[in-house]
Write a structure and sequence with these properties.
about 450 residues, about 70% helix, two-stranded antiparallel sheet, globular, 16 helices, mainly alpha, 2 domains, single chain
Length: about 450
């Protein structure tokens, strides 16, 4: 394998490991803050116990996310030094602000929350987890701002072979980011909602601590249903943003080789990238025009015309992404998202009618749905990044121009195998601890809460 392929593979593997933990961290922090706020407002000890139990799972997930994410920034300097040289003036700003305005707050106040149960007042303690939740999602915002520039560059000028920022306001109000970020936040909330629902379903099937897991399930299902609908809405809007900013990505998502007006939405297809055609396809007439323009008419450029356009604009070369990979990743994402809406709506309906316990098949379906939001998150990320190929910064720098010229194949193989093995071990250990804690459930026993006189709380 060439150095470029090894560098891409290494970054893809490490990012995938890291992204397994990010959405849950974003969403579960918010749910825990809501649980503790309910406790502070009502004095109901169950919600304090809920915040502590789900907080333990959050801490395990958060730790794994931090550990797996640290190495990514070093890879920019080691494996992608030409990217760092070209983009450092712009990409470094949101990364630095992420550390200064988000990660430090997140870490400090998480420590206060963990060790402050008996040291802080109930309101101050709840405020600490809210700061953690806001900082966690602010951290994601800065990363999204950096990524949005790679998808649709704004507020810059190229001088001396480097991209230099000219408008910070344009960077942080990038239209690509303004919809992509809410989509990611809602995806995190869906992940957290399903996570809480699935673990609660496991215990409800065994009739364990119904006083604890029924209200936990309620919070989870409300979050999952509302957020899954919002994910669908922001996803539809993001498709329209992509149609304007990256028409090649949209055409790859639909394996649309020929320009069409109106354009069909393809359900399934057998794609031959070498011949640049679909061997067969099942499509919905006018569907893609409707999705792209909210109209039954509207031209969507095909891959062949876009390839010719890019070759004329940027120089000779192959500007087609891996069409089959983008096409099927998009369908996996949308299929998973549709299932999350269905199972959340059905669960909410049964819970509302107090018939959840009489439908163990639904509870089992909820339990086995736990991997689905992770599949949706990863496949959505694959669409975002694979659909931009061969660009690392759209229209400015190709991936082959960004790789470090002096990193040897041997060092790439060594670090690739080392990181993959290490991350694999961390994922297995972390997964084991998460499953063990989830199966164990909350502890028993009642202790007084000195900050709410007269109220007893489960510990």
């Amino acid at each position: 394998m060439e150095e470029l392929a090894l560098a891409r593979l290494q970054f893809g593997i490490t990012t995938t490991y890291h992204f397994l933990f990010v959405p849950l961290t974003m969403g579960l922090s918010v749910l825990i803050a809501i649980m503790e706020t309910i406790y502070v407002r009502t004095g109901n000890e169950i919600y304090r116990e809920m915040a502590k139990f789900w907080g333990k799972l959050f801490l395990l997930n958060f730790t794994l996310g931090v550990v797996t994410g640290l190495v990514l920034e070093f890879q920019f300097g080691m494996n992608w030094s030409e990217y760092a040289r070209f983009m450092g003036d712009i990409f470094g700003v949101p990364l630095a602000l992420e550390a200064l305005t988000a990660f430090f707050f997140e870490s400090v106040f998480l420590g206060l929350w963990v060790f402050g149960w008996e040291r802080l007042s109930a309101k101050l303690h709840a405020a600490a987890i809210w700061i953690v939740a806001l900082a966690t999602n602010l951290s994601a915002l800065w990363i999204m701002i950096a990524n949005a520039f790679m998808q649709a560059p704004v507020g810059f000028v190229v001088r001396g072979g480097r991209a230099e920022m000219t408008d910070f306001g344009a960077l942080i109000t990038n239209p690509y980011m303004l919809n992509q970020y809410p989509h990611a936040v809602f995806a995190g909330l869906v992940t957290a909602g399903i996570f809480v629902m699935a673990i609660s379903a496991y215990h409800l099937l065994r009739s364990q601590r119904l006083d604890f897991f029924r209200p936990s399930f309620k919070i989870g299902v409300i979050c999952a249903l509302a957020a899954s609908l919002l994910v669908a809405g922001t996803g539809h809007r993001q498709g329209q943003v992509v149609a304007g900013a990256q028409p090649m990505k949209l055409a790859a998502m639909e394996a649309l080789w020929e320009t069409a007006d109106p354009a069909p939405f393809t359900l399934v297809a057998s794609i031959d990238q070498e011949k640049r055609e679909n061997l067969f396809a099942i499509s919905i007439p006018r569907g893609l025009s409707l999705l792209a323009y909210n109209s039954l008419t509207g031209e969507v450029k095909g891959l062949k015309d876009l390839q010719a356009q890019y070759a004329a604009q940027y120089g000779a070369g192959n500007y087609l992404p891996h069409v089959a990979g983008v096409f099927w990743s998009f369908r996996i994402m949308t299929g998973a998202g549709a299932w999350l809406i269905v199972i959340s709506a059905l669960s909410a309906y049964l819970y509302r009618r107090d018939k959840l316990a009489q439908n163990p098949l639904v509870l089992k379906a909820v339990l086995w749905t736990l991997p689905v939001p992770y599949i949706a998150n990863l496949s959505g990320w694959f669409v975002t990044e694979m659909g931009r190929q061969p660009w690392i910064v759209f229209g400015l720098q190709r991936v082959d121009q960004a790789v470090s010229p002096v990193v040897s194949r041997a060092s790439l193989w060594t670090s690739l195998l080392g990181f993959t093995l290490l991350y694999g071990i961390l994922t297995l250990v972390g997964g084991y601890l998460l499953v063990k804690q989830a199966r164990t459930g909350p502890g028993a026993g009642i202790v007084p809460n000195k900050h709410l006189p007269g109220v007893t709380l489960w510990s």
